[in-house]
Amino acid sequence: MEHKRLALFDINKTIYNGYLIFPLADYFLKNNVISKHIVDSLYHDLHLYRSQQVDYETTIENFNLHLAHGLKHQDPDSIRGITESFLNNEEVSNFPPSQNRSSNY
Length: 105
Prior knowledge:
With about 100 residues, this protein is mostly helical. It is built from 4 helices and no strands. The protein has a domain at about 20-70. It has helices at about 20-30, 35-50, 55-70, 75-85.
């Protein structure tokens, strides 16, 4: 049986109250996973959207493309571990109270 990988992004405040991609990208930068250039690209994408220069769908596509580019050639297990560390950090408090963050992601 062939296994396929799937990446899911919550960008429209469905699970997380805010833009999770930005604090996560900042955390990746702090841990030398991605470069400042990638983080700057994400914030520029947000600026373009907020100034109505780019529509929502294009913004989401750009977020995903820029973050994926920054994560290219990174070890998936390492990225997962760093992401879990970020999500378990007490500073990440924008999840609804009913969410059980201690479960596996």
